[in-house]
Amino acid sequence: MSVAFRRESDEEHKEPKFAIPIPPGPNLVTRRGLALIAARVAELEGAAPEGDAAEEHGRQLRYWRARLATAHVAPSPAPGAVAFGSRVRFRLNGTERAIAIVGSDEADPDAGFIAFTAPLARAMIGAHVGEDVDFAGREGAIAILDASPIA
To answer: By residue range, what is the domain housing residue 117?
Structure first.
């Protein structure tokens, strides 16, 4: 029989599921971030899903194991300097805010944790308390009010 008349299974038409993409650059973490990654690995290793969930579980476990294996705890920044691992209080557009600059996997903007690769973090890294830094095309848009290492 011709291949044109053969019914192919639905499995042959499914899109392959690739590995979860690893963020580019170094896998910098805070001590808190390392603990969060280790806890996620332990949680996944303790689970044993079946069926369709098993494939996604395997992908997640591979991702988090790779992140744990490549994690590099960054040294604590100096007080008063904005760097990876800093908690920063600043003023932007007349509003005072506070954030912590952390690794990609630890980022949670709603909780005030932003990745060191985020535009806001990149604009502030290297600044010191009392400085104004440029942001979003505006000179001196951000006033650094306080910077201290994350506890």
So the answer is: 86-149
